[in-house]
Structures are given as C-alpha cells and as structure tokens.
Amino acid sequence: MTVFSFSIEPYGENGWIATLSKSDMVERALTVNAAADALRDRPGVTDAVAGVESIVLRFRPSEVTAEAAKTMLNDALQTAKAHSARSEAVIEIPVCYGGEYGPDFEMLCEKLGISGEELISFHSAKTYRVLTVGFAPGFAYLGPLPDELQTQRLATPRAHVPAGSVGVAGAMTGVYALASPGGWPLIGRTPKCLFDAGTDEPFLFSSGATVRFTPIDEPTYTALKAERS
Amino acid sequence: MTAIAEILKPGLMTTIQDLGRPGLRHQGVPLSGAADPVSFALANAAIGNKATAAGLECTLKGPSLRFKASGSFALGGADMKAHLNGNALQLYTPYDAQADDELVLGAAQTGARGYIVFQGGLQGDDFLGSASTYLPAKLGGINGRMLAAGDTLISAGMRPAARRDIPTTLCPVIAHDFFLRALPGPESAQLGATELARFFSCGWTAGRRADRMGLQLEGAQLKVLDAPPMASSPVFPGTVQCPAAGEPFLLLYDAQTVGGYPRIAQVIAADLPLTGQIRPGDRIWFQEVSADAACEIAAQKASFYGDLLPFGFFR
Q: How near does any CA of chain A get to the CA of B195, in Å?
C-alpha cells in the first residue's frame, strides 16, 4: 500500500483543500481525482475539483456544516487510495508530430539534444495516465513524461492553440481538447475528436484514463480528419 | 427564431451571458456568466424572465441597437445613460419597444458592466447548458465572440413570468470604492503575518490589466517568501493569487480552473458579485472576516433579496 499524508485546510468559508505529500506523482493525482469524482454528487457539494496533487471540496454552508464537509473530504481521500487504478482500457490517440502541427518540435529537439525520431519514440513508446483535467475546457494533463522530454513552458504563451494540439511541460504531456490560449511547447496534433457536445460526458479524457499516442503521417492525419466531417 | 434587434454599434465589449456553467470545473470549464450576477438577475426579474435567461453584458461603454419587432426589455448594473428614441431610461424598469425603435447606451461613469435583458431571453450558442460567451476558447454567445455591428439578436422564446417590482432599496449602488470581505487563502503563510496584514490594510487600485478572467491589483508590492514552485491546483472566482513579483491579482468569473501561484486570499461568496463592477482606477480594500461571519453575511444577503434571486445565489 502506498503511503501518503495530507492535511485539510480551509479555502474560503465554503471550501476545504487537501494537498497530498509523499508517494509518486501519478499516485497523488489519481487519488485526489478519484476522491473528487466520489464527492461531486453528494448533497450540499457545489464543486469537487482536483489538481495534480490537491483537491478542493466546496459546499453550501446552508446545507452542510463545515465540519461535516471536512469529514466528507477526509473519508473520500482515505477510501480513494484503495481503488485509484480505475480504467485499464487504453485510449489510442493518433498524433502527427512536427511540421505545422507541432510548431515547437524542432526547437525542442535542439534544446533536448535529441533527433526528431527519438522525440517521437520517447513520447509514443509508453502509456500515460490522465492525471487531471483542468486549466482550459477538457485540457488533459498526462504523465509521467520520460525524463528525456522534460522541458519548461514557453516564455510567452500563445494566444491561440488549435484543438487537438499535444504539448509537453515539466513531467507531463498535455492535450488541448478545444482551441484555447496556452503556454505548453507543442510537438504535434491529433485529428481525433476530443469533444462531443451532444453527450453527458462531452470530453474524451477524464482523470484516471490510460492513453497511448500513436505516430501518424500527414496524409493519415488529413484522412482521419476528413473522416470526422 | 424571432429576431429582436440588430446591433448598430457594438460598444466596447458586449457579450451574451447568463448565469454560466456551475459545477463543471473538474472538466476545466470555467463558471463564466454575468460578471455582476446580482444586477443581471434583478434586471431579469424586472422583465419577468427566468433566472436562466441570457442577456447582454456591456463593458464600460454600451451598444446601440435597433429593434426589428416589438419587444420588452430592462436594464441593470452600471448606468450607461440609456435612451430609447431619445428618451432617458431608468434601471430595473420594464420598457416596451416597437420595430425600428433605437436603444442607445453610452459610457458608464461608475461601474464596469451594464446589462440589457429582453423578455423571453436571448438565444446563444449552447455549450454545456449555457449560452454564456467565454472569449478565450470562443464558446457560447454568437460564435464565442463579442458582438459586432450587424449582428442580429434572436429571442430564446422563453415563456415570460410575472414581472417583479424591484424596490429602490434593493438596486445595487455602484461607486468607485469597493470593500471586499475575504478570508486568508491556502498559501497565505507564504506572505508571512506582516505582509498578510499589509494586504488587508492597504488600499489597492484596479490596474489596466482587467478582463472577465481577472483583475490586476496595484498599489503595493508584497514580499512573497521563497517556496518551491506549486503544482497546478484548483482556483475559483474570488481567489487572490500573488506571483513572486509581489503584485496580486483577483480572479473573476471567467477564471481558469487551476493555477500555480500562491493563493493568498479568498473573497467571500456574498461579496463576489461586486467584483464585476470594478473598473480600472477604482479603489479596493480587502477586509478579513471569519468563516462564520462570511456565512452569516451570505444568509443576510439571501434573505434581503428574498425570492428575487434564485435559490443558493450567494453560495
């Protein structure tokens, strides 16, 4: 059993925050996100949101006392650690690396001292877990990223990052489900539809999911994109 | 698909908003919605709309529009000196317009956001159950953008309810000074006791970097203690973050769902709607209150407005 510890602190008059320490990054992220999923539909809860190592539970003080909410959060974290491995089905994400789809691809190869082939093979050789979803609608943080690919965010974020863009930053790789501003260096783009407005779960990625990136060439990207429309 | 009006001049930044997308932050979806939801909801009540009806949010300077059919509307929020065919209008009062009538709004002298709501509500692109415009990802509203000259406003055709009389005593009064009650945030220890006391005692000025996502606070440079970089962690409207450079900023309704800067304070839920009326140059004071006091203030405000505002408004 993994050992982690946390303390619960207030976040405003209607919220509690817990930040996990110890254990590894993936374990922390999956635990706080599993706890958030378990808490979301409880009576009096207005938001249960997790980051990569912290969770905030917000509640209506008129319906739940602060003490009861704190107990709820503590219990959810204690039980979440037991079943944090939820989804074993692998979501395949085809990615066209470099070129116009990965505008920072060459810069990164140079900075990391690796070839384009190496970058693609490091990024696509392993499976990742979706650590959390946040920042922008449907934006998925995945990890852990191989050490060879770890880099910093761009000094100046882009005002417009196209939907499907795949970026890397720190120990994580991220996928933009929708077009938005963003500061992660971009290495490629997927033609796969990551958002379907007509469903209850409109975003393809949810925390805990297992993902593998598959390299594709540009004609395949164009063909898959055309299939969607 | 009933056309209500055509935009002649769009104003500085006019968007379609409703009460936003609560409870979706775990999917990265910000709250959005009217930046001053109290004024917006009171205007909707005045015209007999449901609380979920969408209307126009006008920023600093309002639009001009020409009605394409007869219809009713009401105004709220910042007073933008609205005129209908040259006649001055009051806030929170229902008016009837005929086809070809012109509604002209000017610039607000106090407050940042004025609202125009139409009986039946406005239609906008639906994204996860709300028509609210979220400009950074181009969602909701009219193609996710601010209104432009030539745009047509379409009625949502919602069934009207009884119009509510809004007593003058309940109409928000907007000035250039804002007193926001707040609790110390999860990383307030990174300021140290002296600097945290300074945050709560010095007056702040709203900077020019102000949009629906956040507001730069100017006037002092807070000393932030060295700490390892934070992992992305949830943030909310009303959170005050302070980067290492020491200039804090206040997050508003379009704020992203996670952030990486120390969260030094959290504005209480009952005072959050005031933040939507802060304009560059306005003065802001943060007053520290206890969690119990914050809940008490929320309960008082909720009972003050009674059923004019939807249930759970000051959560």
A: 19
